[in-house]
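Notes to self after the Tuesday call (sharing in case useful).
The group wants a holo model before anyone commits to mutagenesis around the pocket. I volunteered. Ligand is nicotinamide-adenine-dinucleotide. Logging inputs and output together so the record is complete.
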Amino acid sequence: MRIAIVGTGYVGLVTAACFAELGHTVIGVDIDRKKIQKLSSGKSTIFEPGLEELIVHGLKGKRLSFTTDLQTTLHKVDIVFSAVATPQGKDHHADLSAVFTVTETVAASADHDILFVNKSTVPVGTGRECERRIADILRKRKKKIRIPVVSNPEFLREGMAVSDTIMPERIVIGINESTAAGVHEPLLRKGVAKSSINARALMENLYRPISRTGKPIIFMSRESAEIVKYASNAFLATKISFINMLAELTEKTGANIRDVALGMGLDSRIGHRFLHAGIGYGGSCFPKDVKALLATARQCGCDFGIIEATDSMNTRARERFFERILTFLPKKSTVGVWGLAFKPKTDDMREAPSLDLVSILIAAGHRIRAHDPATMENARKILPRGIRFCPSPLEAARGADALVLLTEWDEFRGVDLRELKKTMKGTDLFDGRNVYEPSAVKAAGLRYHGIGI
Ligand SMILES: NC(=O)c1ccc[n+]([C@@H]2O[C@H](COP(=O)([O-])OP(=O)(O)OC[C@H]3O[C@@H](n4cnc5c(N)ncnc54)[C@H](O)[C@@H]3O)[C@@H](O)[C@H]2O)c1
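Result:
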C-alpha cells in the first residue's frame, strides 16, 4: 500500500521505517528540512536500537523516502497518517495545533479519496473535530472527495520502538459509522453519498503483515480508541506512583520497598512491571498524557481523584529525592550525574529528571560532571551551561563528592563499585532507580541512598 506519515519524530519515523520493512511504500513527511535531509541520506535523527538499519534498508529498496512536500505527497498515497507531536498546551490540555494543521492541509490539497489516520495521542473527540474541519474545507473547495478519519493510537515504548511496532501486543483502531462512510456525521444523517473507501478493509490490509502473526487488531469506536491510549498511560503512571507512595512508608518503618514490590508483583493479578520505586515517571508521554486526561475529565465534569493523586505523587517522588541529595551535599560540591535521558535506550530528554536536578544543583552552587550513553549531544543544547560532559561513567564520577544515578542504563548497573569508590572523592551514592544492592555498595566503602530502602 502507499502511505504518507506526517511527522518523522519518535513515533512517525519508527512507524514509517517499519511499514516500509513490511513491504508498504512509505513517504515520511516533516516540516523540518534538516531532519528530512539527514533521513534521506540514511542517517537516523533519533537514537533508537535497530532503526537506522531499517531506514537504510527501506531507502535502498525504494520503499521508503522522505520529503517536506505534503501537498505533492498526497497525490501519491491511499492513507495519510498524522504522527505529529501533541505537547502540553494551555491549562494542561493537549496542544492540537500541529494535528489540525496537518488535517487542514490534507483537506485543502487532496485530489482523491484518502484515509486520514490519527496516530498522535489526542483527547477524545479530536477525530470528530478533524472530520468537521475536513468537511468544511471540502465544502468550500466544492470537492466531492471523501477523507474518513480513523483513530489508531500508538503504544510503542522508546528504546524498544522497532520491536514494539513490528510485534505490538495489540493494534487499536477506532472507526465510526461516519468514518466507514467517509463523511462528517451530520452529512451522513442527511444521506450524503458514501465514500469509495472502506476504512476497515484498508486498515486490515495495512496491518495484515503484523496481524497474520497472531497480533490482535481490535476495532472500536473512534472515541473509545482515543480514550484507550490515555487510559493505558494513566494506569501505568498510577502503578508507578502507587509504589512510590509506599516507598515513603517503607523508609519510615524500616521495611524495604523491593521486598514489598516482590511480594505484591508475584500475584499474577498485579504483576511486577511498573512496580519499581524510583524518582517517578518522566518522558514525552506520561507527564503530559496524565495531565491532559485530567483536563478532559474536568471539562466533562468527571472526578478523577485517582489520577490527580498519581500526578502529585510523581512530583513528590522527585522532590523527596532531590531534597535528600541537597541535604547531604557539602557546599560547592562536585556531583557526578549518571544518565540524562528520561529512560535507558533513548536520547529523548523531554521531562527527564536530569533537567530539574541539574538546574537545582547548579543554582545551589554545585558543579556537575555528567555522562549519558546516548543523549550528550541533545543535553548540551538543553541543559544550563557549566556542566562537564564526560566520555565515560567513571570520568563523570572522577573527584566527585557524590554520585547520582538518574537513568538505569545497563552500563551503570554492572559498574565495579570498588573502582567507583577509588575514582570519587566523596562516598555518597544516590540511586534514583534502586538498581544497586545496598550491601554491595556498603562493602565497596560507599554510602547508599536508595528509595524506600
Ligand atoms: N514518543 C513516544 O514514545 C510516543 C509513544 C506513543 C505515542 N506518542 C504520541 O505520538 C505523537 C508524536 O510523538 P513523538 O514523540 O513522535 O513527537 P516528536 O516531537 O518526536 O515528532 C513530531 C514530529 O512532527 C513534526 N511536525 C510538527 N508539525 C508538523 C507539520 N505541520 N507537518 C509535518 N511535520 C510536522 C516535527 O518536526 C517532528 O519531527 C504524540 O502525540 C505523542 O504523544 C509518542
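Two things stood out.
The domain at 2-220 is CATH 3.40.50.720 (Rossmann fold).
The two ends are 53 Å apart (CA to CA).
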